[in-house]
């Protein structure tokens, strides 16, 4: 995989690059598993589990530990189809057996190579993801939906020529495999994206020839289709998005109608199909994450404080970051077990990851943990499956 390449200084931090390094799935199958696979494949029209009603069989499959899902997907078409479905996640949720894993895009200390790491709630590494199809990109968007990771658009350089992309790829965390989805209507990079009510929104960014965009579109996974919606009132790039109470919030970044960074917040109401505006956003945001019903941000100008947004009253609360573990002034966020993880951007051998627990007893919100990526964190998402 080529290193992170310089494309355009207007990219927001951090610039992220996907690795094309092919890494094999570490899961292996026993001889008995191969025997089972050959038997069941011979009769794909049979019930999911012979002798059991399908609803009972589905419940039984849902109880299997998550690390075995890729092997289960090879047993039969029916098993694979069920494991890929939203119903599979729903059954596991109702059974109370969802497992939370942290997917971290990391780079080496020199920023030349990157890959995805997968950690469980104890920080144990499970696997490395297979290489995503297509060329390496920067300025792409990442969203989680129905137990799947979507990597959208971005900017790629092929044979010395750079251009924005509209391609969308989906990683199935249960089957450990990639597939391509319908491309976006507008090629873009350095844009905002988020999931709201089971739909994915992409807003703003840069388009062809580096022009700033105000356009927005929404993806419906049931139809595998992108639909253009009402545009922003102004172009916006280097921004980020999140969903609260069924609405899409877009903040941070820059607008061509402001000098410097934009502090306004664009809010989209899907029911009314319209945008409105708030004035109390954050500027020059270097890290953000949604935990529960609150948004956590860190600004470039003050990276030793968390800015916490409460959408109920559109207020912000500032929380100092303790010096415990590291005096670093650069962090990336992760979410695990309803806690906020602060991964240092400095490669410190003795660094312990800072953890902020918003539900802890006052005065005990901050802890440290040995959980940390094997490389420098570029971005992370949490997938429950």
Key features?
Neuraminidase; four-stranded antiparallel beta sheet; mainly beta; 385 residues
CATH superfamily assignment of the domain at 1-18 and 132-253 and 264-281? Answer: Kelch-type beta propeller
Which spans have pLDDT < 50 for at least 5 consecutive residues? 1-44
Order the strands across the largest sheet as they lie in space: 3-2-1-24
| H and E string | HHHHHEEEEEEEEEEEEEEEEEEEEEEEE
Query: Which architecture name of the domain at 1-18 and 132-253 and 264-281 does CATH use?
Result: 6 Propeller
Mean pLDDT: 85
Overall 3D shape: globular
Main beta sheet = 4 strands, antiparallel
| Helical segment count | 5
Head-to-tail CA distance between termini: 29 Å
What CATH calls the topology of the domain at 1-18 and 132-253 and 264-281 is: Neuraminidase
* Class inferred from helices and paired strands: mainly beta
At the first level of CATH, the class of the domain at 1-18 and 132-253 and 264-281 is: Mainly Beta
* Beta-strand residue percentage: 35-45%
What is the percent of helical residues? 10-25%
Question: What Rg, in angstroms, do the CA atoms define?
Answer: 21 Å
Number of strands: 24
């Amino acid at each position: 995989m080529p290193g992170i390449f310089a494309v355009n200084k207007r990219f927001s931090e951090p610039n992220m690059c996907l690795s094309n390094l092919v890494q094999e799935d570490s899961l292996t199958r026993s001889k008995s598993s191969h025997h089972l696979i050959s038997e069941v494949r011979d009769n794909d029209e049979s019930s999911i589990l012979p002798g059991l009603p399908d609803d009972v069989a589905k419940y039984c499959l849902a109880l299997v530990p998550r690390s075995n899902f890729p092997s289960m997907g090879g047993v039969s078409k029916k098993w694979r189809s069920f494991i890929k479905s939203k119903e599979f996640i729903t059954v596991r949720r109702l059974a109370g057996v969802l497992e939370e894993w942290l997917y971290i895009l990391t780079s080496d200390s020199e920023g030349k190579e990157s890959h995805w790491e997968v950690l469980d709630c104890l920080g144990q590494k499970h696997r490395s993801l297979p290489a995503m199809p297509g060329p390496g990109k920067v300025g792409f968007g990442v969203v989680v939906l129905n137990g799947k990771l979507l990597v959208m658009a971005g900017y790629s350089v092929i044979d010395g020529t750079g251009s924005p992309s509209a391609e969308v790829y989906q990683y199935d965390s249960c089957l450990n495999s990639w597939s391509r989805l319908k491309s976006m209507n507008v090629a873009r990079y350095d844009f905002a994206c988020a999931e709201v009510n089971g739909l994915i929104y992409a807003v703003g960014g840069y388009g062809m020839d580096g022009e700033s965009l105000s356009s927005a579109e929404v993806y419906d996974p049931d139809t595998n289709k992108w639909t253009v919606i009402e545009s922003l009132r102004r172009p916006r790039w280097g921004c980020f998005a999140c969903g609260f109470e069924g609405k899409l919030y877009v903040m941070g970044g820059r607008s061509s109608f402001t000098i410097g960074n934009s502090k306004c917040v664009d809010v989209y109401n899907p029911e009314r199909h319209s945008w409105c505006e708030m004035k109390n956003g954050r500027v020059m945001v270097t890290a953000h994450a949604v935990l529960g019903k609150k948004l956590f941000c860190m600004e470039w100008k003050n990276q030793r404080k968390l800015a916490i947004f409460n959408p109920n009253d559109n207020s912000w609360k500032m929380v100092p970051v303790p010096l415990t573990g590291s005096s670093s002034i650069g962090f990336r966020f992760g979410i695990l077990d309803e806690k906020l993880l602060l991964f240092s951007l400095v490669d410190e051998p003795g660094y312990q990851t800072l953890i902020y627990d918003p539900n802890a007893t006052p005065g005990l919100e901050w802890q440290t943990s040995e959980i940390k990526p094997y490389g420098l964190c570029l971005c992370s998402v949490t997938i429950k499956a």
